[in-house]
Amino acid sequence: MRAATTVQITFLTNGGKTVEAPPNSNLLRVSLREKGGIPFKCGGGLCGTCRCKVEAGIAHTDAVKAKERRHLTDEAIAEGYRMACQTFVNGDVSVSW
Ligand code: FES
Questions:
Q1: Chain centre distance of CA 12
Q2: Each residue's pLDDT tens digit, 36-95
Q3: Could you tell me which residue ranges the 2Fe-2S ferredoxin-type domain spans (predicted)?
Q4: What is the 3-state composition of the chain as percent helix, strand, coil, each rounded to the nearest 5?
Q5: Count of CB atoms situated within 10 Å of the CB of 82
């Protein structure tokens, strides 16, 4: 298997809009750049606005940060919820919010 040179991010709540990004991209930054539509306010892990659900590809996201745990229960994390501004993706993901 060749290493991915781009990853695909699908914004399910935005009509399934799909964009490409470099590996290890920040999910909120890609959303901002490509008009993906994930809600946000602070961009810094404080407000909780960017809560979203990784419906597919949770294995392609990095480790949950302490800042995210202030907004997400263990159950939510187990269901695939993340804070977009704190999440980096290294493979294809589909996200809703
Ligand atoms: S935008 Fe405020 S926590 Fe992510």
A1: 12
A2: 999 999 999 999 999 999 999 999 999 999 999 999 999 999 999 999 999 999 999 999
A3: 7-97
A4: 30, 30, 45
A5: 27
**12 with 55: CB under 8 angstroms?**
yes
Ligand 1 atom with minimal separation from the 45 CA: 3
- Joined together, the tokens standing for residue 93 give 């993901």
Cα of 56 to ligand 1 centre, how many Å?
Answer: 21
Global model pTM greater than 0.85: yes
User: Ligand 1 center to residue 15 CA distance, Å?
Assistant: 22
At residue 81's C-alpha, the angle toward residues 25 and 75, to 5°, is 145
